[in-house]
Amino acid sequence: MRGAGGSEGGTLTFFIGLAMMIAGGYLLLSNIVIRPVFGFRTAAFNIGGFGITTGMILIPFIFGVGLVFYNSSSKFGWGLAIGSVIALVAGVIANLNIQFAALSIFDLLVILILLFGGLGLFLRSLRG
């Protein structure tokens, strides 16, 4: 009987490594803090030194929705509405501050050992 992935590696090693990777990945992702960056006149995009705020992105969205409701086959209206939503989502994502939560060195070592130790076990189980 062959092991994990059709190799000679152990099936138990495969599942232990997979469980360790899942636990380490969960702990890593649960300790990442995402904070929005708000400020007066914070621009979503800067084009040619001119800051475009999210309020400015909503203006073409309003016109696009109006055109779609006036004529549902208006390609220009659909383009304005969909393009504005894409620009709005991209602006929100661009203004996020992603950082680690305050961790002790022990917590970080446990996370890294689980994640990369599990990866090592997982890959060893697939080795022929």
Structure write-up:
The protein is of the alpha+beta class. The chain has two domains: 59 residues; 52 residues, no CATH class. The chain has four helices and four strands. The chain has a two-stranded antiparallel sheet with strand order 1-4. A hairpin with a 2-residue loop joins strand 2 and strand 3. Helix 1 packs antiparallel against helix 4. The chain starts with 10 loop residues before the first helix and ends with a helix.
Strand content: 5-15%
Summarize model confidence as the mean pLDDT.
85
Q: Can you count the helices?
A: 4
Distance between the termini: 13 Å
Q: What is the count of structural domains?
A: 2
Calculate Rg over CA atoms. Answer: 24 Å
Shape: elongated
The succession of helices and strands, N to C, reads HEEEHHEH
| Tally of DSSP β-strands | 4
Strand order, biggest sheet? 1-4
Largest sheet: 2 strands, antiparallel
The proportion of residues forming helix, as a percent range, comes to 55-70%
Fold blueprint:
Elements: H1 11-30, E1 32-36, E2 45-47, E3 50-52, H2 54-70, H3 75-94, E4 96-100, H4 105-126
Antiparallel strand pairs: 1-4, 2-3
Helix pairs in contact: 1-4, 2-3
Short description:
The protein is 62% helix and 12% strand. It has four helices and four strands; from the N terminus they run H-E-E-E-H-H-E-H.
Which features characterize this protein?
single chain, 128 residues, alpha+beta, two-stranded antiparallel ribbon, transmembrane helix, membrane, transmembrane
